[in-house]
Amino acid sequence: MPLGFATLALGFLLGLGVLFAWRSTHRAAKSSGEKVIAVLPFENLGAAEDGYFADGMTDEVRGRLSALPGLQVIASQSSAEYKKSTKSLARIADELGADYLVIGKVRWEKGADAQSRVQVSPELVEIGSGSAPSTKWQQPFDAALTNVFQVQADIAGRVAGALDVALGAEERQALAARPTANLAAYDAYLKGREIWNSGAAEPVSRRAAIDFFARAVALDSTFSSAWAQLARAEASYYGTVTPTSAAAERARAASQRALALAPAAAETQLALGAYHASVRNDPAAALGAYETGLQFAPGDVELLGYRARGADARTVGGGPDELCQGAGARPALGHDRAPPRPRAGLAASVPRSSGGVRSGARHHPDQPRPDPGPGAGVARGRRPGGCAGGAAVRARGRGAPGAGRVHGDVRRLGLGPRSRTSAAAARTGP
Questions:
Q1: pTM summary value
Q2: Highest mean pLDDT: which range of 22-26, 243-247, 379-383
Q3: What CATH number labels 34-179?
Q4: Can you name the CATH fold of 1-26+182-401?
């Protein structure tokens, strides 16, 4: 079988696995009356260099909402495509398959220490079938920067209340959780996430992201989210740039620290999966991490996607490379905790609207994806102890059978355009 066709076939099969994972959770969501909501990138009203802060606010609100029962939250990678979009809200909701949109504006007024303030104007918009979008809730917030986490919790809580989502004591406690008490650590974390989410492929950019995460944990050694992100970034760097024992140890230490601090967090299990797949070359252990994460967060889109990729790789006879390609992947599914996603890796296994196949086999998990250019084939071999280096297998093709259906049904996982019409088709079946 020609290599190009084999690669295309593998990508299509992996895409079917993602489709199965999404359909299962989507049907369960609909049967239980869950509401589908997308948090669009908040508009930055401050200085251009403060854009990362507005993006961080968006991610945190999305992440808090995704942890609540009764809501199905569109993945970060999908929502991020509409940053500064001129499309109507109705059009965006249709493409995302969402019933509700959260939009907002953010201004960071900087001052000396406690004098800095954050102003947020969020709005919950209901998208009715055949009617104009309507505001279901909106409220401006103006608070000291030291209370930024309370603002995030209040926004998520009020959105949930407007949607009649009942919150128990456990959910309220989770909403009120502060990721860190150190604002400088949080600032470094957001800056690292901004680089990470941008998909910058240059080693110097990825190193800069790692340095920001490292600074965050140096300022607050109990900052579990920063440890988890540091582990994923170090694992990616090991597999694609520097496969040394020192790099492997840094990834291991960061993932273990995240595990010690927050074993039940989805981002922790994503970090462990990235370490096992990228550094230890152990697809079974990576898959186990995602399974564990789903026990704590059964609706986490990123975990669902990586589990599907790992399971499909094993089912179709794939080896560690196939699991690597999706398992620790940078947030193509980045739902909100890890963005994007990453803050985004899964995206590439299925055809997109252009008709081309962006094969998940072409990059290392959690590796920002450089464009390899046309005609790329089998690239470099396996790095010692890790996934295949750089672009392991790359496929560019057109018109795989059933491509349109697959690309439509995996939108919720952050993988491509999806409309409310195709959502209805997915609910009713073929």
A1: 0.71
A2: 243-247
A3: 3.40.50.10070
A4: 1.25.40
